[in-house]
Amino acid sequence: MVGGAAHAGAAGDPLITQVQDWASGHGDGVDATPYGLPVKYESDVIRRNVDWLTADTISSINFTPIHALDGTITPQGCAFERHHSGAIDLSKQDYRLMINGLVDQPLVFTYEDLERFPRENHVYFCECAANTGMEWAGAQLNGAQFTHGMIHNMEYTGVPLRTLLQEAGIQAAGKWVYVEGADASSNGRSIPLEKVLDDCLVAFKANGEALRREHGYPVRLVVPGWEGNLWIKWLRRIEVMDGPVEAKEETSKYTDLLGDGTARKWTWEMDAKSVITSPSPQSPIRHGTGPLVITGLAWSGRGAITQVDVSVDGGANWVAARLAGHQHDKALTRFYLDTDWDGREMLLQARARDATGYVQPTKNALREVRGMNSVYHNNGIQTWLVTPNGEAENVEVS
Amino acid sequence: MSKCRDLIVAIVLTATLTAGSAALAGPYGLGRPALTDEIAAWDHDVRPDGTGLPPGSGSVEAGEALFSERCAACHGDFAEGVDNWPALSGGQDTLDHDDPVKTVGSYWPYLSTLWDYIHRSKPYGNAQTLATDEVYALVAFLLYSNDLVDEKFVLTQGNFLTVEMPNAGGFIIDDRAQAEYPAFSRVPCMERCKDNVQITTRAGTLDVTPQSQTPEPPQAVPPPTDPALLAAGEKVFRKCKSCHQVGEGAKTRIGPVLTGIVDAPAGVADGYRYSKPMQAAGKGGLIWTSKELAAFLTKPKSYMKGTKMSFSGLRKKDDIAAVIAYLTSFSG
């Protein structure tokens, strides 16, 4: 037996040999916490921001603690937030959704109206286009939470946007929709009608309960597989149009500058990507040599994950990891590589492949095409240097 | 189940077949018609061809005054950006440089976007308070600050489309399918893919990752005797120096002299024209105690709405304590 936590002295482990308080007295009764919070021992599993990234916390972003989570569903309470005018307070009673533009009958819905349409449940990831954006110039932030934590994955309940548009009657000239939120930023975005009719969801529940305020309560738009900025929170208006608005968030931002000074626009899809969440800088190896579970997340905005390869030597050799559970389209996949660590230095990498045959590229391969200043859509392979003491660091390799 | 679905399909078909009589309810008959006034109240979007742009006009001159009053605290008097707030001017011909500066003048492809965004979402924290002509004026000023029009220019609904944006042709539609997917869809190597692996960059050497795992406890302001604290305060004060002077020979510059500011009444430095709210606070008895100064310096514009100080605030409690200690050492 190697290592092992239970170092029993001659007299045995007192946690076993002595009667503990919790095995003798009472615990809390029901109703101690009518809505439960994480146990105090997990108080470090929280969203964090990087304060130098933005001028204030109102128009800002924080990061999901993916280094400390497992499975695929992100609890709402620690799922990253991105606001352009802060998280507003909007009740169901005050909520209105308008559909106008190139429709037969412009309509206004209340929240109660939305609950009367046939609804669906789907699990989807939501990734900010800027996730990993700080890493274009080289390894910068030391933790999976900070390099890859602008992502969450929830089970959404809602009404297909298609259903609502059909209720208003889409006119033949309608080719796009413009969607906006009720907050001061409005965060208006234009989406081709084809995508809207395919799989966009007007969601009001996530992971079984109401959306959190910071995720758009009471209603947000879900745009599966596409960049998070399109997932309008506090959704208040949908306008059917014959062309895009070219609003601020689809011109000055969320466009990808290339090396030659031109920029790509309408880069909506999130390409296949993966990251090892443990071991990682915030989740070092504490148990020494022997059995080691290497685990991480993989996802693609263009379909299901079909394979994740893991390398422990910086990409020289790869093995296929074990994919846990079922692989859903446009949702997170959890992978595991169950290994035996001999204590040697490792350069850990993961490489995702999706149903289209796309293989996650290296960061340098991306830079060759795009240069260094794209900001958005960095899906390059991440490397963690794990040293013999079990600590991990964000690095890049040749 | 299949019967149920058939029924829904039948209903949808019926609705489609009878569409054209616009007043007809949709398949589910839910919701109510949106009124013309309601649509007008929410539908503000302005498109590149000018659709949605209301009649009106605004001059560079009017825009400059408005910008100074309502925007410059974050974006700077010349739209050059303060701290981490966005620069809106400059950056021309930098898009292919190592550090591109993406501004209205250097990057934004459509003028309509600027009008639409200011009208809908600005000023920050006070959205939808600008009159139509004020929006025109601010857009005109931003064109001027980017050297795209002269100082006499007046922007109107009529001449809106004549303004040429320098980077209008700078965008291509997502071409990843052609430029990347073929190369990124090859069957990958699994064994002996590299001869050797070298570490090229390390995050540890940069040290820009937040380290604090739990929020810091609030710290009391220590007495200003510690030389290390004074030195730290002097360093923090560099951020203030572009506008303020302190100590012997200090003069009013962009901001008032700060000699003797600690425990002094607000708004009393000679030769400085304070904002109205600052004057009012001084008359109302505001004293710049360490505590009040700390609150002001944390978030000047929240502490005093309308202050002329275009500084976004000090984040670190230590920095605030240090700079107050430093200021206290100049008792005047």
Supply the number of helical segments of chain A: 6
State the end-to-end CA separation of chain B.
85 Å
Proportion of β residues of chain A?
A: 25-35%
Mean of residue pLDDT of chain A? 96
| Order of H and E elements of chain A | HEEEEHEHEHEEHEEEEEEEEEEEEEHEE
CATH hierarchy, class of the domain at 57-162 in chain B: Mainly Alpha
End-to-end C-alpha gap of chain A: 37 Å
**Number of DSSP strand runs of chain A:** 23
| Name given to the CATH homologous superfamily of the largest domain in chain A | Oxidoreductase, molybdopterin-binding domain
- By CATH reckoning, the class of the largest domain in chain A would read Alpha Beta
CATH architecture of the domain at 57-162 in chain B: Orthogonal Bundle
CATH topology of the largest domain in chain A: Sulfite Oxidase, Chain A, domain 2
Spatial shape of chain A:
globular
The major β-sheet of chain B equals: 2 strands, antiparallel
Stretches of chain B where pLDDT is under 50 for at least 5 consecutive residues are 1-24, 215-224
- Tell me the number of structural domains of chain A: 2
Helix content of chain A: under 10%
User: Which whole number gives the mean pLDDT of chain B?
Assistant: 86
Summarize the structure.
Chain A has 6 helices and 23 strands. Chain A has helices at 14-17, 111-114, 144-148, 161-168, 193-199, 363-370, and strands at residues 60-61, 82-83, 96-101, 107-110, 120-127, 151-160, 176-181, 189-192, 201-206, 209-210, 220-222, 235-241, 256-257, 263-265, 273-278, 290-299, 305-311, 319-320, 322-324, 333-341, 346-354, 383-386, 392-397.
Descriptive key words:
heterodimer, A: 398 residues, mainly beta, Sulfite Oxidase, Chain A, domain 2, Immunoglobulin-like, 2 domains, five-stranded antiparallel beta sheet, 23 strands, globular, B: 332 residues, mainly alpha, Cytochrome Bc1 Complex, Chain D, domain 2, two-stranded antiparallel sheet, 5 strands, disordered N terminus
